[in-house]
Write a structure and sequence with these properties.
The chain is α+β, with helices and mostly antiparallel strands and about 200 residues long. It has ten helices and eight strands. The chain is about 45% helix and about 20% strand. Helix 4 crosses helix 5.
Length: about 200
């Protein structure tokens, strides 16, 4: 499998998203810090969160996420897709989730660790080169590498199923937009687990 596409902010993701198989591809041991599902739970509201909690691997105690505790990534993705569908009901679900995930950079920046990391970078390139370190800090699944190339940053994601083709795209776009630029992503899907992204901006 090797599928290539060029994505701008105006290029919608139209491929269907079958939620349960997509979530099942995520290892049960893959985790993410609580600051991200906490934001999504607030967007959903108490009733919708309680409905989804019954389908989670491990719902948070008393329904409250602790910002830097580890929680199942599968649960965070389930919440994110639900929040995205609510916020963008007329869009294809994959595209709605991509747009929702552009807000991850704002959530990250509001955390102490994220604020410190972002204070040390002053431009798009430097921020994108820090993406692997940010992912290592905020999640535990797969790996990522980044390097500067002519006019952009090449990122290689390995072992990140059900993230690289939706959440990952939106997250990278959000980083570029955070610095006032407009991204273009050359995405090469090597498998459902692995992808290469060449990110450029203007």
């Amino acid at each position: 499998m090797s599928e290539r596409s060029t994505l701008t902010l105006d290029t919608p993701l139209t491929a269907s998203l079958d939620i349960e198989p997509w979530l099942a591809a995520v290892p049960e041991g893959a985790t993410i810090k609580g600051i991200f599902p906490s934001r999504t739970a607030q967007q959903l509201g108490e009733k919708e969160f309680e409905r989804l909690a019954s389908r989670m691997l491990r719902a948070p105690r008393l329904g409250k996420y602790m910002p830097f505790n580890d929680y199942p990534l599968r649960d965070a993705l389930r919440l994110g897709v639900a929040a995205a569908a609510r916020a963008h009901p007329r869009l294809p679900l994959r595209e709605a989730f991509r747009r929702h995930e552009r807000g991850n950079i704002t959530t990250f920046a509001a955390s102490v660790a994220g604020g410190v990391m972002l204070s040390l970078v002053g431009n798009v390139e430097a921020a994108l080169l820090k993406v692997p370190a940010a992912l290592e800090l905020m999640s535990h699944f797969g790996s990522a590498q980044a390097r500067a190339v002519g006019g952009g940053v090449q990122l290689e994601f390995r072992g990140k199923p059900s993230w690289v083709d939706t959440s990952g795209i939106g997250s990278l776009e959000g980083v570029v937009q955070h610095f006032g630029a407009t991204p273009t992503i050359e995405l090469t899907m090597l498998s459902i687990h692995d992808a290469d992204c060449l990110v450029t901006w203007r």
